Amino acid sequence: MRCTTCRATASVEVRRHHAAFCGPHFLEWFESQVRRAIERERMFTRADRVLVAVSGGKDSLVLWDVLLRFGYQATGLHLNLGIHEYSRESEEKAASFAAVRGAELIVVDIPTEYGVGVEGLAEATGRVSCSACGLSKRYLFNKLALDRGFDVVATAHNLDDEAAVLLGNLISGNVDALVRQSPVLESTHPALVKKVKPLYRIAERETAAYAVLRGIDYILEECPNSVGARSLLLKEALNLLEHQAPGTKQNLYWNFLDRVRPLLRAQREPAEVRSCVHCGQPTTAEVCAFCRMTERAARRMRVRTAAGQDREDAVDVFAVGPARSAAER
Ligand SMILES: [Zn+2]
Ligand SMILES: [Zn+2]
């Protein structure tokens, strides 16, 4: 296998582009894909302050690395989710990455701020952990970006993530989510910060290769709560297709963006966005989903202490309706 650019021995194959690259040319190709995403989708410019959501995993550290190399004003935001050893190690990876590069990292500790970690929030409100976690992340990224005057929030969702989410939304017929799915979410409310996904053209194995070639040290473990998650099953299914027919993920996602989504958008009025009466953050309901979740958790913990009852009783007192999807924004 020879490098498409220089004919030297290739180390990374990109089958969907009928290409293979040596180390240096792979890095060049990778960065050109990210640059194209940022420019083609008008994500941000050098004048913008970018808040990068940094988990400590390979995708987010790779994204941060590329943006810093490009000379963007990229500050990291790490949320410590309170998932014990996994969260401790994740924060450590994010902090040492920042220290080596002299980059600014903001850390928010959820157990300190809200009294419980995301698992506690989930347990107290009848949500599954991944749902409480996703909701908390979306809320806190937006709130922090707004409070600290950032122009845009960048997340490290890659092609595999986006294709799996798309497949999941198609299977469950989640039209609202399909209408919203995009590499760029413009601000549609004064309290809603623009969101972008600069890695949407890049496959997961390519961010792994980039991390190895650049010597980026990231947390290898997946979140312990993601074991058996539906998103992993969908990714596996897409990998099977990709293996037999390279380009399947890219075609699925890009054809959706270019051909299907415009038709959906033309048919569907976007839900009206207003301000949460408690916290002022954007929501389509009177009280945002995050406030509802944290209030339920706080109320249940008070009940538990006051009455000295066990957990099941407390759940009965404040029985929670069906967990709302995170479709509040
Ligand atoms: Zn080469
Ligand atoms: Zn709220």
Largest sheet: 6 strands, mixed
In whole angstroms, the N-to-C terminal distance is 46 Å
Shape: globular
Given the helix and strand composition, which structural class is it?
A: alpha/beta
Q: Tell me the total number of β-strands.
A: 10
> Total helix count?
13
Structure ligands? zinc ion
Question: What can you tell me about this protein's structure?
Answer:
- The strands form 3 sheets. A 6-stranded mixed beta sheet has the order 5-4-3-6-8-7, with helices on both faces.
- It is α/β, with parallel strands linked by helices.
- The protein contains 13 helices and 10 strands.
- It starts with 11 loop residues before the first strand and ends in a 12-residue tail after the last helix.
- The longest helix has 20 residues.
- It is globular and about 65 Å long.
- The C terminus is likely disordered.
- The structure holds zinc ion (ZN) (2 copies).
- One zinc ion (ZN) binds next to helix 12.
Keywords:
alpha/beta; two-stranded antiparallel sheet; 329 residues; 10 strands; 13 helices; binds zinc ion; single chain; six-stranded mixed beta sheet; disordered C terminus
Would you summarize the structure shown here?
The protein contains 13 helices and 10 strands.
